[in-house]
Amino acid sequence: MTTKRLRILVLTCSTRPGALGPAVGGWLTETLAPVAKGLDVDLVPVAIGDLNLPFLDEEEHPSTGVHHHEHTRRWSRVVDDADGFVFVTPEYNYGMPATLKNALDYLGPEWAWKPAGFVSYGHTSAGTRAVQHAKQVVTTLRLVTLGSTVAIRIADAMREDRFLPEARHADAAEGLLAELVRVAHALTPLRERERADAVEGPLPGSYARPLGPDDAAEVTVLQRCCWTEEALANDTLAIPALHETPEDVRAWLADWDTTGLWRDGRLLGMVRTRRAGDDLHIGRLAVAPDLRGLGVGRWLLRRAESAAEGCRRVVLFTGAASHRNIALYRQQGYVALPDAQEDGVVSLAKAVVPV
């Protein structure tokens, strides 16, 4: 699971001139700023009134992700980049504002598998009936609602025309953010499976996607697990993958094209490629030790080889005593290069057959 900072959208929903919404949204982001820093979260305040969204005017169904108007494409990018949402909403006639319903209806896949929390305000019910109304809609969009909420009675929060909620409201807001962060992390695998660059993996429930610097922590753990056996087989600890820090891994993830195989937030395997002249170099082919013998290594190898179009050959290397690896590569058509063994390392290559 990636360790990138979570991006939480704080959406102020009321657009009525002189509404209390901006004050509530401002109080919320200010109150939660220290907590968000500790949770490694970016709070992004957005007001629906600033989005300039007319009543839904897209011809295509939102589930298609096809947006013809710039205001829709802009809103799509904002929502797609977010990892979770806090809706700051009043209650209008026992329901949520039409502006919130309209903003929700514009999009489809962008909302899916992200947590949604609510901060409501109102008079008798403190806005809770608006929240119940909104939950019926957001769950249909596959947003995951939280148990924690913040409900503010306006009479309890106003002091001489100033919005000054009580300490219990701040405590409730902190609890909401903490729960939202936990749920956002838990839902990450579901969101990643539906990324445009994700493909179905060889094991039930697995998927592959490109790895980047934010995945350095998981890659570091996988390397330590996999290359410990290599060290024992080759009777040496002089294996770079065993000694790289997360910072070292982050650096090479930025330079290599790397594919990771995931399931339920766990990195199961990986492989990296890079072109050098007419050669495609493959490296760091790794499979979690408990999953060996299931064809994962062969699948990752074929995935890496698919990047060899236009190359003359594919080149890789392994430890001279890594007999399991050498047998796999030979089965896939690799042969040892002349004078390939040096310092306990065997280099192998396979010619690329033009399509």
What this model shows, in words?
- Strand 12, helix 10 and strand 13 form a beta-alpha-beta unit.
- The chain has 355 residues and is α/β, with parallel strands linked by helices.
- The chain has eleven helices and 15 strands.
- The relative contact order is 0.09.
For this entry, give a set of tags.
15 strands; 5-stranded parallel sheet; 8-stranded mixed sheet; 355 residues; 11 helices; alpha/beta
Overall SS class: alpha/beta
Number of strands: 15
End-to-end distance: 36 Å
The shape is elongated
| Low-pLDDT segments, ≥5 res | none
Beta-strand proportion:
25-35%
Q: What's the number of helices?
A: 11
Element string (H = helix, E = strand): EHEHEHEHEHEEHEEHHHEEEHEHEE
How are the strands of the biggest sheet laid out side by side? 8-9-10-11-12-13-15-14
Helix content percent band? 25-40%
Quick structural gist:
The protein is α/β, with parallel strands linked by helices and 355 residues long.
Task: Summarize the SSE layout with pairings.
Blueprint: E1 6-12, H1 21-38, E2 41-47, H2 70-80, E3 84-90, H3 98-105, E4 115-122, H4 128-140, E5 144-153, H5 154-157, E6 158-159, E7 162-163, H6 167-193, E8 199-200, E9 207-210, H7 216-234, H8 240-243, H9 246-253, E10 257-263, E11 266-276, E12 279-287, H10 296-305, E13 313-319, H11 323-331, E14 335-336, E15 345-351
Helix pairs in contact: 1-6, 7-9
